[in-house]
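Hi V.,

Quick status before I head out on leave. The structure for the redesign project is tokenized and pasted below; the design run finished overnight.
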């Protein structure tokens, strides 16, 4: 695979001369001195043949932001299959007196890592999961539980957050951790009222999964922009909120659930009690081992097909889903439910298709870490492989369309891009990226990746330049 590696001026000149690009595009970029210090990694290849048609510093490793999600999602589709489903099981352990309806033991939730359980993205699919479990337990004839409601020992390790994530992200909804039992996307809302300028903001209410968290409020009412942050540690029952929320308005802060398995245990316990079932013990905070000789399955809840979960992951850029897929790859392929095992699976896959992953720094699977470092070339090689793989349909369907869906709604809005561009976006401070496919006017599908780091101009300025490069190739290749 021959690579034409060019400087940015040479890249733009090549487009102008060989693809009849517009001179004004070149002039506008070259005249912009505010881009001094910006690092670029750009690669365009024919998606069918893999022939690289243009590149600029394609081997340079840069922070990809959420383009990183293409890695666990593509590998999960390839290795687990688009139809793969997770299953969460409710069982009882101990002796069961069926005539009297008494369980001499516990009701156990056995998790499988389903990231979408009870998610708002799949509300129609799951319905009320807790109510379904209560119904099944009552249908089994259970009227009294002498033990407790508990979660089984985890199939994963107990580290819910990637080591590359910043402490300040862990309490935010986008920093929700990964568990073998996840619920409601592992987030909850805190409803706030901002008072007049400069006065303390008031917590009005908290959604169910935050009810047992002790919140300390330092919020101030100020301005018109949400600058409120929730800080908490995994498994903690305490959190504090700092910063500011818009004055004279009502607002919802989205926070991460610090212990989703225990939150689910509490919810099922409360629902069973409300239904008239007597439970002697309190909801169990500790995870309980399953005794295979005394374990009786009551019901199971299966997830949507993996292809649907991957689609939400890439359309909505859900960090927790991407990290859940990474960890589950480690569990399914290597028998180790850890992030590092999942990363090892991804690297092995990339190596098998010629992506040279040893040249990359992969600290997470979502792109939230600013210390990830991957190249446009490696990403394009992955995209070319997926375009020609058995999973090409569900993978391309997982990418949002420019100006139409998901995180791409506000990008590639020009009429000439209509129906032609699907891509994963990426945005963190100082980093902007796109990676996906577009179709040229001649009907060719192009795999592309554009990464930019270290800029101080508005992100929209970088996006405009990236769209200009795509536009020239659509018109002229």
């Amino acid at each position: 695979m021959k690579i034409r590696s060019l400087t940015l001026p040479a890249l733009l000149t090549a487009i102008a001369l060989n693809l009849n690009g517009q001179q004004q595009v070149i002039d506008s970029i070259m005249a912009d001195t505010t881009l001094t210090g910006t690092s670029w990694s750009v690669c365009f290849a024919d998606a069918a043949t893999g022939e690289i048609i243009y590149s600029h510093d394609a081997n340079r490793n840069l922070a990809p932001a959420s383009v990183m999600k293409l890695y666990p999602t593509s590998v999960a589709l390839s290795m687990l299959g688009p139809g793969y489903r997770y299953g969460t099981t409710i069982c009882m352990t101990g002796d069961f007196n069926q005539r009297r309806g008494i369980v001499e033991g516990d009701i156990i939730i056995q998790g499988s890592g389903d990231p979408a359980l009870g998610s708002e993205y799949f509300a129609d699919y799951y319905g009320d999961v807790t109510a379904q479990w209560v119904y099944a337990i009552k249908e089994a004839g259970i009227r009294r539980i002498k033990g407790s409601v508990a979660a089984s020992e985890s199939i994963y390790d107990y580290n819910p957050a990637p080591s590359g994530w910043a402490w300040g992200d862990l309490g935010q909804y986008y920093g929700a951790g990964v568990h073998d039992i996840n619920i409601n996307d592992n987030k909850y809302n805190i409803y706030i009222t901002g008072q007049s300028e400069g006065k303390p903001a008031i917590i009005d209410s908290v959604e169910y999964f935050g009810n047992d968290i002790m919140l300390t409020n330092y919020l101030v009412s100020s301005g018109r922009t949400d600058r409120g942050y929730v800080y908490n540690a995994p498994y903690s029952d305490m959190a504090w909120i700092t910063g500011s929320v818009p004055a004279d308005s009502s607002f919802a802060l989205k926070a991460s659930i610090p212990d989703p398995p225990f939150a689910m245990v509490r919810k099922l316990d409360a629902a069973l009690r409300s239904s008239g079932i007597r439970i002697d013990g309190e909801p169990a905070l500790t995870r309980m081992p399953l005794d295979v000789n005394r374990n009786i399955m009551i019901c199971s809840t299966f997830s949507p097909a993996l292809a649907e979960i991957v689609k939400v992951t890439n359309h909505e850029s859900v960090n927790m889903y991407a990290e859940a897929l990474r960890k589950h790859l480690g569990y399914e392929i290597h028998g180790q439910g850890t992030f590092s095992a999942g990363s090892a699976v991804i690297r092995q896959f990339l190596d098998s298709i010629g992506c040279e992953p040893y040249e990359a720094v992969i600290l997470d699977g979502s792109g939230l870490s600013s210390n990830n470092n991957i190249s446009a070339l490696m990403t394009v090689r992955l995209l070319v492989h997926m375009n020609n793989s058995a999973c090409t349909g569900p993978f391309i369907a997982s990418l949002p369309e420019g100006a139409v869906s998901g995180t791409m709604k506000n990008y590639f809005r020009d009429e000439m891009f209509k129906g032609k561009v699907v891509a994963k976006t990426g945005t963190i401070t100082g980093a902007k990226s796109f990676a996906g496919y577009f179709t040229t006017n001649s009907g060719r599908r192009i795999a592309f990746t554009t990464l930019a780091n270290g800029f101080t101009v508005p992100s929209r300025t970088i996006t405009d330049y990236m769209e200009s490069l795509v536009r020239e190739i659509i018109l002229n290749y």
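Above is the designed sequence. Confidence is low (pLDDT under 50) at residues 1-17, 19-26.

G. will cover questions while I'm gone.

Best,
W.
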